[in-house]
Amino acid sequence: MSAADSTRTAPSSWLYVPATAAHMLASAPTRGSHAVIVDLEDAVPSSAKSSARTAASDWLAKIHPDRSPHSQPEIWVRVNAGDEGIDDLVALGCPDSLTGVVLPKAERAGDVHRLAGRLEIIERSAGRGEPVAIAALIETVAGAERVREIANVPRVRFLHLGEADLAADLRVQATDEEAFAGYRQLLVHASRLSGLSGPVGPVSTVIDDASTLRTSSELLARIGYSGRACIHPNQVSIANLAFGPQPEDASWARDVLSRLEQAAQTGSGVARDEQGRMIDEALARRARQILSSAAGTA
Fold first, then answer.
1. Is 207 within the bounds of a domain?
2. pTM for the full model?
3. 34 and 235 in contact (C-beta within 8 Å)?
4. In a domain, 3, yes or no
């Protein structure tokens, strides 16, 4: 596994907050999201980059980390791409409150290695023990083409999909979800093959239409995504429900394992569910995954 920490439950909701919005930063940890992303990139104009770094650094210094499960959201920072992102890291340092860094426009493994190398230097200087994780944001065709090598870089814990920039690269409408079906599945495959948690879905500009956002989120969950990015607090609870353990899934999983256990007592490795469909070890593996996730250990 790359840098994924298998003892942590993957966040269902990742709330973006501009580093320059002091009032939003102050309330961000109380909004119910499982992760907060302090944004130094798209949400900050070029003229405000320096002040944004200072604001983010000051805010991170006030956060007291608590690594116990469900205690507080993970704190991530989306830095800028290229040299500007290195400047971001130098300004931020690596306070204990920082869980990880989101790298935008990740297009090759070298981009991630460069960021990781700088993080290692900063960590060593600060005497930090736990490494800062990296989430690679795939939002170009070039990044998608090399997503496997990106996912295999040490420190990478998540792949994020950025469909707004990808839409521009593909010359399609960002609202056309069908246009991204192949790319969405590509990130699922790369994450699984690299031992990462499921990827993180894109932001949605749908804020006031809960039904549309719920449908979109449930689709992402069904194809293997562990969560999605949010741009408004109203989206958080919908994401948490869509990507969290579903009661009916846990009930199904317990039934599958119970039926297989009963079958094993008679010397059989297969059983049938109440509709007469066959149950075997492949379904049992999925059932155990569901129950493990529901217990907060996957």
1. yes
2. 0.85
3. no
4. no
